[in-house]
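Re-run with default settings, no changes from the original entry. Doing this only to confirm the output is reproducible before filing.
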Amino acid sequence: MAQGDVFTHAVTLDVERCRGCTTCIRHCPTQAIRVRGGKAQILPELCIDCGQCIRVCPHHAKQAVFDRFEDWKDRYEYRVALPAPTLYGQFSNLDDVDYVLNGLLQIGFDDVFEVACAAEVVSDYTRRLLQEQKLKTPVISSACPAVVRLIRVRFPGLCSHVLPVAAPVHLAAAMARRAAIEKTGLPSEKIGIFFISPCPAKVTDVRTPIGVEKTEIDHVLSMQEIYIPLVKAMKGLKNLRPLARSGLLGIGWATSGGEAAALLKEQYLAADGIDNVSKILEELEDEKLRNVTFVELNACTGGCVGGAASVENPFIAKARIQRVRKYLPFTHGGAEDGDRFDKERDWRAPLEDTPIKKLDGDMKTALQKMQRVEELEREFPGLDCGACGAPTCRTLAEDVVLGRAKRTDCLFVLRRELGMLLGSEPPLWSKEETP
């Protein structure tokens, strides 16, 4: 099966709340949303689950679907929590991550394994690959699944630049499962691995992983769901078990620039926010960034601290992460641990572009339809106003050719044809009169 043949998305639409306001279509980075019949529709082959529509929807009609811990915890005899380093930035005055890790044990987990620990392993491995010159530069980080899917959809020519290494969360899950089996003697199916995520893109990455054959993560929990019970549990903690295994390099992955800084190199670039990421990818596509070795891109503002499922303001969370890092060693030094996970560490195959629905499978017919798209695009005013329910005049033209829309969905075309029908002289609108 090719990467992405099956689309299972975490971002969903609540039709009852949707008012068809078109705000979401103007902010979607892959033009994956249309408004038809007064309601938004998400095209699954284009959605990258970045969560941008969740942030901008004024009616809260877009939602991220996560697993609930209460629904699944009793299915397993041994439950392991995988906290993303972003979790540490959600709490004020935190100076010891062991409070968070011990709190997770209090709310129903039997063990914890920090994703930040696996992040240090990935950083060490990436440094070695760069030193051995085994990567095509500039190398683009593969840690943010929304960015990886954005590249597949909009910038397929950059696929060969994406780091072919599993994201830390997948490596952490493999390491956690093996450690749990060795510790308990239980069979794998009786051990549940729960990732505590700040964003919906990670949910999709678990359901339909890219690069890895199979993820060891069983369920993805929302950071927002875990937050309240975790705060209550942390207040009563006194005698802490020493559970932390990560250093400041691993925890730094929670914020923009943390992954790149962990490579201990100067020629890197870090950008966050989906609009900024798109601009950087355009620069890379045009080969304008020649003196950069590594490019770290995060779809969320501030990095993972800005995820749609996080609790705290990303800038406050980033400041808290910096505070926590002051009390940590430089690194845990877990590179040797990572060497035991060669199969889980490397991607199983190179990144491929997303198989998006084309105008037609027959080349001759596709060219004819393309010509029709261009004719329609010239007929439309070129305002990209979104009033038709499509993000641009070009996408409306494509939708018309594909049978997903009508010419008269464009208000300017409708107004012109009504004017001509009623005998108005001159027509109510013409291409030349478009403001």
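Confidence is low (pLDDT under 50) at residues 1-6. Residues 69-345 form one domain.
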